[in-house]
Amino acid sequence: MKRGHLRVYLGAAPGVGKTYKMLGEGQRRLARGTDVVVGFVETHGREHTAEMLAGLEVIPRRIIDYRGASFTELDIDAVLARRPEVALVDELAHTNVPGSRNEKRWQDIEELLAAGIDVISAVNIQHLESINDVVEKITGVPQQETVPDRVVRAADQIELVDMTPEALRRRMAHGNVYAADKIDAALGNYFRVGNLSALRELALLWLADRVDAGLQQYRQEHDIDSTWEARERVVVALTGGPEGETLIRRAARIAARSSGGDLLAVHVARSDGLTGANPSKLAEQRNLVEKLGGTYHQVVGDDIPSALLTFAKAENATQLVLGGSRRSRIGSLFTGPGIGATTIRDSGDIDVHIVTHSLMGRGRLPRLRGSLSRRRKIQGFVLSIVLPPVLALVLGLGGDTLNLTSNVLAFLLAVVVVALVGGMWPAMVTAVGGSLVLNWFFTPPKRTFTIAELNNALALVIFILVAAMVSSVVDRAARRTRQAARAAAESETLATLAGSVLRGETALPALLERVREAFGMTGACLMERVDDDELTEVWRPLASAGSLTCTRPEEADAEIPARDDLVLVLQGHQLEADERRLVGAFAAHAAALVDRARLSEAAAEAKPLAEADKLRTALLRAVGHDLRSPLASAKASVTSLRSDDVEWSESERAELLETADESLDRLSRLVDNLLDLSRLQAGVLPVFTRPMALDEIMPGVLAELGDEADQVTVDIPHTLPLVEADPALLERVVANLLANAIRYSPPGRPPLITGSALGEIVEIRVIDRGPGIPREDRDRMFAPFQRLGDTDNTVGVGLGLALARGLAEAMHGALLPEDTPGGGLTMVVTIPTASLRPTDAPVPGARERSEQE
């Protein structure tokens, strides 16, 4: 289904006539025969607005009851069922009453648009999300209802309903906006001239941005590259040099001269990453650009003038600001026309400003260095001095058997050899020296620099040109080889760094050692700036590798900022620009390691607090009923016995006393369990073990269960060996397990308790035929205040199994769950026999349990 079109009327403030214009558009379309309905329009009691509804079909609103009051909202289903061509829906940013299908009205409109219905709506500038806070600062009135900018920007048409502040205030004074009792307050607060002027400017600028975006899209769709000076856009080129601040401020002043002018800063980075720009300077300049209201961009390109102009034309820039060249006049002779001259030549319709600065013309001569090592260059210069005389001597021994052509080829071979060894400049020396030797010894007239024949002169000129070109090719190949090797080394280093990140390595000293080795440094250290009362900065080392003598970043050979308070310092030698970029990646990773370590420490410190808080919360939540219920029963029984209003019979008095006694016993057991659990967790529970038979504890266990003891089947052989245990604690363990088994055993299938001997341990098994517990939940079942499958606290607080395991382990035993064959759960208590000393007794099953956990 084709999506409907959205038209939005945008106003600077209430009362400018958005709804009136919307209804007027509806009337015009209705007159043209379009099927138009009013989905939702709020007239706010304005007479002229209400008159515009005449003749338009109005969809009844949906009535929603909320908190004892009735509200009306847009009935989406009714509009969808009616399926008009156009629906008028007012107040785009409106928040719907709870109970509506959508939270916001713009979401209702999205449904209508998706159904193919065109929608006309209205909104004020203060309701746009991006400038909501700005409006609050201007007017002092917070706006609770907002709409995302993307919703309004996505509209097919946006029309500004504009009105001067004076005209709007006159409308209010005439009673065309608010009721008479609200006019004076509105004019003195929100609708002041200053507020309305600021809101109007915001609306105009916001719409101008939207129009500009549409213009850019139109130019792209129609492949229009030329600049349309509809709006001033000033682009300033940054190199990361110290003159950047001057250029930015000058460009900002140029942009400020035209109302609504834009400031864009751009830095062109080489595609191979070898920019030589200072990252910290670029970061400072970026901050300055953003403070001045501009935007910062970075593009990649080897041809800087072309990259600058491509960016400027893509942004429809009208002016381009460049800094004057720092090269000296002599330096310009070697490098040809600079970036400024080339940019001006190719700028076309874009005005180019060359801004002077203090560093202009103070640059050094270009470095005439190739890409070979110093050793090979020295060898090349030695050959350039030695080889021509030696070659002249060898060729001279041949007499007249060789002609000039052969001699030129021989010297050309010498130039190629020198170029292969030492690069371009030694080869050029050889070419010049060789040409002089050829001219003196082998070109008629000999022993003079005069050349008699034209072809001999031509041969020498060609010799020099060929020598220069060959040496240049050799030097360029060496440079590319070195760059490729460096790029491969950087890629390998970055791949190693990325691998350490993916593997989650957190050893900061190991990372610093890797940096030290990779860049041939004697020492590396990550320093952090700490706050100090003195004016001087204080730095402390977080981790280091190798030998480092500096105590402050400025004392090191290289300092790479990781963030504002962290610096990676290196000692050994100065870093080149491309090396600094690579070290910057290591510095960022080091900062991430520091943050990760501190977060881990904070999490480790917070974990015990969270666990304690979780336990405390669970305790308060779980024991509420179990403390309140027995206390209430005991209190009621005692109060009844003390009452003089009722004459109780002996049997009734006995029943009340029994109820109070049972309630207090229940409360006592709960308190004992809580105290014992806390003692277990603190490691201070007293345990008194002695040799005993399992038969000793069964009477106490069954008595603890009360009437439920009849549901238990006891099958403990009398032949079991004595165990080394605390009778009171073991009794409580078995009683808790049996009580739990009774609770989950199905009717007619009572739990079974049995025992067996296995080597130096005795196993007590409590077997039930209940639903059992999945293996993934068996560790959680021993946590305090856990009852798997329960949702209330009416059957206990979930201390039984946690306390049972703790008491068993306190007696050097263990408590493990097993599946009951045929279905159910078997709890196995292992206790060492009396033949073992308690201090030497193993904890049976502990190894298996730890493996499960």
UniProtKB/TrEMBL annotation:
Gene Ontology cellular-component terms listed: cytoplasm; plasma membrane
Stretches assigned to the Histidine kinase domain: 622-835
PANTHER family: SENSOR PROTEIN KDPD (PTHR45569)
Keywords, ordered alphabetically: ATP-binding, Kinase, Membrane, Nucleotide-binding, Phosphoprotein, Transferase, Transmembrane, Transmembrane helix, Two-component regulatory system
Protein name as it appears in the record: histidine kinase
Enzyme's top EC category: transferase
GO molecular function: ATP binding; phosphorelay sensor kinase activity
SMART domains, per database record: HATPase_c, HisKA
Organism, scientific name: Kribbella jiaozuonensis
Transmembrane segments: 378-397, 409-442, 454-474
InterPro entries: HATPase_C_sf (IPR036890), HATPase_dom (IPR003594), His_kinase_dom (IPR005467), HisK_dim/P_dom (IPR003661), HisK_dim/P_sf (IPR036097), Histidine_kinase_KdpD (IPR052023), KdpD_sf (IPR038318), KdpD_TM (IPR025201)
Stretch list, region Disordered: 833-853
Membrane topology: Multi-pass membrane protein
Subcellular location: Cell membrane; Membrane
EC numbers: 2.7.13.3
UniProt catalytic activity: ATP + protein L-histidine = ADP + protein N-phospho-L-histidine
